[in-house]
Amino acid sequence: MAAVAYAQPPEFASAKAAVAALFPQQTFVEWTSTTGDWNGDGVQDLALLLNEVNGPSDAPMEIRLVVLTGTPGGQYTLLSASASYCKAQKFFNLEAKGSSLFVTAVDKAEGDVSATTALQFRFSPQRGDFELIGKENLWEVQGKEYGRTSVNYLAGKLTLYERVKGRVKVNKEKRFEAPRLARLNGFDCNSYDDGVSN
Fold first, then answer.
1. What is the pLDDT of residues 65-120, one digit of tens each?
2. Rounded to an integer, what distance in angstroms lies between the CA atom of residue 14 and that of residue 150?
3. Which domain of life is it from (predicted)?
């Protein structure tokens, strides 16, 4: 019986080298990054939010979310990469919690006014990729207005919150037919339909 050979993913000495190989026709720089052991192999992995520089002046700036797997030898291999990732008006935050990666886009952060959108991706060993399992929108004018919505794609549930006398409580819950969980690899924020508004 003949042995089947599987191609090993290329290894890169640095995250910068991995990004250059992944996008040979474009120039991306790191916006923000975080580390975590998402695949549970005991080696730190690296998530990067990248924005394009020196792109065409008549095209919008491109943003990518890339996750690199760390190797025991200190190198990196590609785990997953989005297509067009969501925009942020101000800045991004990345946070690792267990097998989840939280990506928060801050659209407003001026004085008492704030507005954010956070997506939660969780690594799936079965699919070998991250799946989008949650989304939360939060907007607030300190002491005046408050709004928060949470979407659970695993349960197909949308929850709306309100603040009453200083306490946040559930205002309404709505069920929806959740689509198949979106993968991070190739994820396009501009074309993704999460089924919530259907």
1. 999 999 999 999 999 999 999 989 888 999 999 999 999 999 988 888 899 999 99
2. 36
3. Bacteria
Total structural domains in the chain?
2
Would you say residue 119 lies in a domain? yes
Sign of CA dihedral 122, 63, 50, 139: negative
Do 48 and 66 lie in a common domain?
yes
Does residue 5 fall inside a structural domain?
no
Paired strand residues for 164: 167
Q: Are residues 101 and 139 in the same domain?
A: yes
Measured at the CA of 146, the angle between CA 143 and CA 150, to 5 degrees, comes to 150
pTM, whole model, 2 decimals? 0.89
Range of the domain at 50: 10-85
**Which DSSP string corresponds to the chain?**
-PPPP-PPPP-BSSHHHHHHHH-TTSEEEEEEEEEE-TT-SSS-EEEEEEEEES--TTSPPPEEEEEEEE-TTS-EEEEEE-SSPPP-SSEEEEEEETTEEEEEEEEEEETTEEEEEEEEEEEETTTTEEEEEEEEEEEEETTTEEEEEEEETTTTEEEEEEEETTEEEEEEEEE--PPSPPBSTT--TTT---STT-
